[in-house]
Structure formats: structure tokens, C-alpha cells
Design a protein that fits this description.
6 helices, single chain, about 50% helix, 4-stranded antiparallel β-sheet
Length: about 170
């Protein structure tokens, strides 16, 4: 009887660990909308390509139309997060799987954006969630990286140009 209980517990534990819930959850999710396309003057088709269909629409008497879009932020599919979960599972022999699954469950949050369209289906106003702006440090780092890459290209191509020219006497 005791052997049957122990076997059942180990079987349940193995099923939980081998299911790889946290890994599967990290690989699934919803793609975040690209807010670069959501600007005043953009067409309704561009907005719906990013947000999907609106959850509600309200028409006004002056020809304007307000659309409400709901979407999830912070839960995009992420292979890096899945690999980290896999390695943590290996290192802990699966003991961390319940914790990693809870962490994956807490990823992401729901947001809502209201967009007012004109009679020509172009955006007039945007209300609601706006993503945080890129920090100055990130912009400077990207510029520094581009300068480094350009210097490296020049330094690698300079010796090749010198060796291809005939020697002068």
C-alpha cells in the first residue's frame, strides 16, 4: 500500500516536471502591438493590423467614431525566457517548475486604448496606454555601437586596400 502511494506521488511529480509548463508558457503568448504605426493621421487598417478588431465602437453625430481596443502587454513569446526556464529545471531537477510556472502566469498585463477616427477613417485622437519612451542612455548606446561598427569596418578594409595596390619604388 505504501509503495503504491509513493509511486503515485512520484508519477504525479514526474508528470508535472516533464510537462514543462513554464517553458511552454514562455514560448506562447500574444505579440505586443507596435506603437510606431499608431499615430495621428494613420488609417484604421494600420491600427487594426496592430491591435486587432475593436472590442467596442461608438459613433457620434458629427461623423467621428471612437473605437476601444484591448490587448496584452509584456507577454510576448520569448525563447530566451524559455531557455532560462529549461536550464533552471535541469539544475534543480524540476523542483523549481512550480515557481517558474507561477512566474510565467504573472507575466503581462491588460491595457486599453481608445482611438477617435474621423469620417475618412484616419486617427484624430489617441487616448489610453502609451508605451514608455526610449531612454536617452539607450539612444546614446545605440549611436556608440554604430560608431564602433563603422570604425571597425574601416579598419578592416584599410589593410585589404593597401595590400591590393602594387608596391611603389
Amino acid at each position: 500500500m505504501a509503495l503504491r502511494i509513493v509511486t503515485s506521488l512520484f508519477g504525479l511529480y514526474a508528470a508535472l516536471v516533464l510537462s514543462g509548463c513554464s517553458i511552454g508558457m514562455a514560448l506562447s503568448g500574444n505579440k505586443q502591438p507596435n506603437f510606431d504605426y499608431i499615430v495621428v493621421g494613420a488609417s484604421r487598417n494600420q491600427v487594426e493590423a496592430e491591435f486587432g478588431h475593436p472590442t467596442a465602437t461608438n459613433e457620434s453625430t458629427d461623423g467621428k467614431r471612437e473605437a476601444i481596443y484591448k490587448y496584452e502587454m509584456g507577454n510576448s513569446p520569448n525563447t530566451g525566457r524559455a531557455w532560462v526556464n529549461f536550464y533552471v529545471d535541469l539544475a534543480t531537477i524540476g523542483l523549481a517548475e512550480p515557481i517558474l510556472t507561477i512566474i510565467e502566469l504573472l507575466q503581462g498585463h491588460d491595457e486599453e486604448t481608445r482611438i477617435v477616427y474621423g469620417p475618412d477613417n484616419k486617427i484624430l485622437e489617441i487616448h489610453g496606454y502609451t508605451p514608455p519612451s526610449v531612454s536617452k542612455a539607450v539612444i546614446e548606446a545605440e549611436e556608440s555601437q554604430e560608431r564602433f561598427i563603422e570604425r571597425r569596418r574601416k579598419s578592416q578594409s584599410a589593410p585589404a586596400e593597401q595590400s591590393s595596390s602594387p608596391p611603389t619604388q
